[in-house]
Specification:
Two copies of one chain form a homodimer. Chain A has 221 residues and is α/β, with parallel strands linked by helices. The first copy, chain A, folds into two domains: 4-87, Winged helix-like DNA-binding domain superfamily/Winged helix DNA-binding domain (Arc Repressor Mutant, subunit A, Orthogonal Bundle), CATH 1.10.10.10; 112-212, Oxidized Rhodanese, domain 1, CATH 3.40.250. Chain A has helices at residues 4-20, 24-33, 40-46, 51-63, 83-99, 101-111, 121-130, 141-145, 157-160, 184-194, 206-211, and strands spanning 38-39, 67-72, 75-80, 118-119, 133-137, 153-154, 172-176, 199-202. Chain B binds a DNA duplex (30 and 30 nucleotides) through residues 19, 23, 25, 39-41, 49-53, 55-60, 71, 73-76.
DNA sequence: TGGTCATTCTGATGTTCGTTGGAATGACAT
DNA sequence: ATGTCATTCCAACGAACATCAGAATGACCA
C-alpha cells in the first residue's frame, strides 16, 4: 500500500468519472436525465445525436456509474444513478461559470440578455407564502409529473401563447423551468412581458430544488 | 438564443472543466494543490511526471479555470483558483466511491486494510472539547503551516518514529492528514499501534475541513 | 415460433490527447 | 550585458476518442 501503481489506479478510477464529464454531449444528456428518465431515442433526438453515438455515450456514463438503466417493455430507460450525480453536475457548472469568463459569455449567448431580474429561491418561497404571486412551471408534461413546486400551475412553454387566459393580469407571474441554464423560463417571461403581463423568472429551477428537497410528486413517478 | 449552436457552445464550456478532471495525473495534482501552492517542479516530482508533461497538464487546468499562478522569484507557484474547486474535487470522489465498486477496491488497495475505525469529524470535535485525546497532524511542514486543526500537534510521518517521546502513552492519539484518500494518517496509525500506543485515524482531513472552515492558520500563508 | 423494434455492437475514419526531448522564453543575479 | 535557472513552447509520435452506417442482439408480442 502507498505505492505508485496503487495510487495511479485509484486516481484513474476518479478520472473515469471526470472523463465521463468531459464531453458536451454527455453533459447535455446528464442535464436531461436530471429531469427524469429518458429512452435512448428520446435522448438522441433531444441532444441532436445519432442513435448509435448516443448509445455509446450512455455506455460511457453507465460505466462511470453516473446513470442506470431500467427496462420497460421494449424500451430501455436511462436515469441518473442518484441525486449526488445531479449535485456534481450542478457543482461543475458553478465552477465553470465562476472561473471561466468564456462560460459567462456562452451563457448569455444561449439564454439571451438577462433583462429581467431573476427571483431567488428564498424570495420566491416568501412570496408564495405571502400569496401575492402565481408560480408557473413551463416544462414539458412528463417532467412536471416527475416532481414540481407545490402549488405551481403547469403550462408548457409551447402551449403558453394559447393558454394566456388561465393567467391573471393583475398578479405577478413567476415562471420556472429545469434550472439556471434552461431557456424555457426565459422564453416564457419574454412572451408574457410582451403580452402585457407582469412576469419574472425564478433564478433556480427543478434541478436545484430537487437537491434541496423542495419538489412534490404527482403520484406516478 | 435557444439555438443548437449556442447550446453546444455553452455545454462545451462546461465540458472544458470536465475534460480537465478527466486525467488521473491532473486529479493528483489538484489534490496536492488543495493542500497549498506548489511549484511546477514540486508537482512534477510529487506526481511522478516529466517537467514538460507536468507543465502541459497545468496549462490545461489553468485554461479550465481550476488553478491560478503566482510568481515568486524565479519560481511559479500554482494554487487552486478557489475553495469551490476543492469542493468539486471532493464531490467527484464521493460520486466515484459511491457508484463505482472498482473505486472502492482501488481505495482499499491503496490505503490498506481499514482495520482501525475512523473517527468522524463530529466525534473528533467532541473529544477535543472533552480534552481526552491528542490530535496529531502528520502532513509535511508547509502544509501544516498553510492551515491546520487548532490545537493539533505537528509531527510529519517521516519524523514520527524518531519523535515518539513527544506523545503520551496513556491518552488516545488521533492522527489526521490531507483527507479521506491520503495514506499518511493510515501509515501513522499503523506505526503508533505497533509501538503500543492507542491510536486511531480521523476519517476526514485538511481538505474536508478547509471546506467547512475548521482550519486555523499560522500567520504566514 | 417468427416477426418487430429499440438498443447495442462492430469496424472504419478523422480528431484530439498524453507524452517526450529539446529549443525558446523571460525573470533574476552578478 | 551575460549566464543561470524554472518554466513554457514546439514538433512528433502513438493511444484513445467521437462519430456514423450497418450488422447483430435480444426482449417483446402476435
Amino acid at each position: 500500500m502507498g505505492d505508485r501503481a496503487a495510487k495511479d489506479a485509484l486516481y484513474a478510477e476518479f478520472a473515469a468519472v471526470g472523463k465521463a464529464l468531459g464531453s458536451h454531449k454527455r453533459l447535455e444528456m446528464l442535464d436531461l436525465l436530471a429531469q427524469g428518465p429518458r429512452s435512448v431515442e428520446a435522448l438522441a433526438s433531444a441532444a441532436d445525436l445519432g442513435i448509435s453515438t448516443c448509445s455509446a455515450h450512455l455506455q460511457t456514463l453507465r460505466e462511470a456509474g453516473l446513470v442506470e438503466t431500467r427496462r420497460d417493455g421494449r424500451r430501455i430507460y436511462y436515469s441518473l444513478a442518484a441525486d449526488d450525480v445531479a449535485k456534481l453536475w450542478d457543482n461543475l457548472r458553478r465552477v465553470a461559470l465562476r472561473h471561466r469568463p468564456h462560460t459567462q459569455l456562452a451563457r448569455a449567448a444561449y439564454l439571451g440578455p438577462d433583462d429581467t431580474e431573476a427571483v431567488t429561491t428564498e424570495a420566491l418561497l416568501q412570496r408564495i407564502h405571502d400569496g401575492d404571486v402565481v408560480v408557473v412551471d413551463v416544462r414539458p408534461t412528463p417532467e412536471f409529473a416527475g416532481g414540481h413546486l407545490p402549488g405551481a400551475v403547469h403550462i408548457p412553454v409551447e402551449e403558453l401563447a394559447g393558454r394566456l387566459a388561465e393567467l391573471p393580469v393583475d398578479r405577478e407571474i413567476i415562471a420556472y423551468c429545469r434550472g439556471q441554464y434552461c431557456v424555457l423560463a426565459h422564453d416564457a417571461v419574454r412572451l408574457l412581458t410582451m403580452r402585457g403581463y407582469r412576469a419574472s423568472r425564478a433564478r433556480d429551477g427543478a434541478l436545484e430544488w430537487r437537491l434541496s428537497g423542495l419538489l412534490a410528486h404527482d403520484g406516478a413517478a
